[in-house]
Amino acid sequence: MKSIVNSKEPIIIFTGPSGVGKGTIERLLFEFEELNLSLSCSATTRKPRNGELNGIHYYFIDIDSFRDKMKHRKFLEFSYHLNNYYGTLYSELKKIHEKKMVPMLEIETNGVKKVIERFKKENLNDKYNLITIFLAPPSIDDLRKRIISRGSENNQTLKDRLKKAEDEIKDSSIFKYKIINDIPERAANEIREILHKELGIDQTK
Q: Membrane spanning segments where (predicted)?
């Protein structure tokens, strides 16, 4: 049986370079029911792709509404990528917390830097327990092999992805936890133990 004793509202930020296996680890983590994880739904100004649903895959809003929310500080974080805005709404975090669940955000390293700076500037650590986790490959060569195995990259995009990955790994010291994804099941269980501690989950009772 679990017992959650941490009084601060938790926010998990899960980050890692493209191709490191974040999706696999997330699927494994969501199988651990005691964690009560809920993937946070981001807002974006881009148009929905075929099959995407509002409020499920993203909150699709127009650019004026997005900028108005930026102006009124409705976002924990936001970024501009490929001519569109993306961001995490405080209202989304509140909705998840009200369900007694734990929001998990998947954002890029630069976004994490902004969140950490904002937490310090606005004393948000008094309200939230920010849990930042960086998923790293065993080596850049291992990551190269994983990306090549996808068969979706040409030489230039492969080079660009690996350069970005190297930069992200260099910045990984800003994260509270760095996990090596050598074996997905092992990495997921390591994160599970971290979250037991951070969330105050005692399964011995």
A: none
